[in-house]
Design brief:
Helix content: over 70%
Radius of gyration: 26 Å
Subcellular location: Cell membrane
Pfam family, one: EIID-AGA
Structural class: mainly alpha
Distance between the termini: 87 Å
Number of strands: 2
Membrane topology: Multi-pass membrane protein
Order of helices and strands: HHHHHHHHHEEHHH
Organism: Enterococcus alishanensis
Largest sheet: 2 strands, antiparallel
Strand content: under 5%
Shape: elongated
Number of helices: 12
Protein name: PTS system mannose/fructose/sorbose family transporter subunit IID
Length: 284
């Protein structure tokens, strides 16, 4: 009877296919159960539920694992979600093996959560800098000319490519983190990775500047006649500081965001009202 019990309680093997499924469940449920109390923890738990069910056959152990993964959690979708999903799968596997073999529990609850809490903020910063600050603007920059020509591809291309990019990247990180185990956290915080992140962040700023310079079109309609000679303000500005008006608009919106927060709708309405007034009095 004892042999049957040990066999029944033994955790099943976790494969990379299981980790891929866990990440994809997290990926597509990311914002659905978002709450102020736990933030994205229900999404992470939903992603890991099939893995936890394979690892913990005892109902009480399974409940404890659910509670462990339901603590406050918030991070970026692919970098944070991918690495942490794989890492938690690896750590839960070790915990399940220790419990099933009645060994001393080295993979304590506090260790698991502290690892997750220590990574979720750092990885969110990495993911935001690279994905939101760089990669998405590259896709947008590629598609803007198509959108200007009236092609629907200009709207579809960035959305589809960015979604596929994040899904593929997240699966890759989840698998690598599961394989590497706890050493994955050290790798993500290494000097080389941080240098690459800073480089890509600078590239992202360049891409944003290129987009603003090429596709934010603001010009002045002011002109004066002095002693029979016409002075066109826009021509003077083009000679002294080309692109100064688009830059002023972009920096004005940036200043608004720094003062008021990322209130996009308010910024659009305010900018529209200002431009209408300036156009009506003949300045722009």
């Amino acid at each position: 009877m004892s042999e049957m019990t040990e066999t029944t309680q033994a955790p099943e093997e976790i494969t990379k296919k299981d980790v891929t499924k866990a990440y994809l469940r997290w990926h597509f449920a990311n914002e659905i159960p978002h709450s102020f109390e736990r933030y994205l923890a229900p999404s992470l738990l939903y992603g890991m539920m099939p893995i936890l069910r394979k690892l913990y056959k005892d109902p009480e152990q399974l409940k404890a694992a659910y509670k462990r993964q339901l603590l406050f959690f918030n991070t970026q979708l692919s970098w944070g979600g991918g690495v942490i999903t794989g890492l938690m799968s690896s750590m839960e596997q070790q915990r399940a093996e220790e419990e099933s073999q009645n060994k001393e529990i080295m993979m304590q609850d506090d260790l698991m959560y502290n690892t997750k809490a220590g990574l979720m903020g750092a990885l969110a910063g990495i993911g935001d800098a690279i994905d939101s600050g760089t990669v998405q603007y590259i896709f947008i920059a590629i598609a803007v000319p198509w959108a200007q020509e009236g092609s629907a591809l200009g709207a579809i291309f960035p959305f589809v490519c960015f979604a596929l990019y994040q899904a593929i990247l997240g699966v890759f990180f989840a698998r690598q983190a599961f394989t590497m185990g706890r050493s994955a956290s050290g790798l993500m915080q290494s000097t080389g990775v941080q240098t690459a992140i800073e480089t890509l962040s600078v590239l992202g700023l360049f891409m944003m500047g290129i987009l603003a310079g090429n596709y934010v079109n603001v010009s002045s309609a002011l002109k004066f006649d002095i002693s029979g000679r016409e002075f066109v303000i826009q021509d003077i500005l083009d000679q002294i500081a080309p692109g100064i008006l688009p830059l002023a608009v972009v920096m004005g919106v940036y200043w608004f965001y720094t003062k008021k927060g990322l209130k996009v709708t308010q910024a659009l309405l305010l900018l529209t009202a200002i431009l209408i007034v300036l156009a009506a009095i003949g300045i722009l």
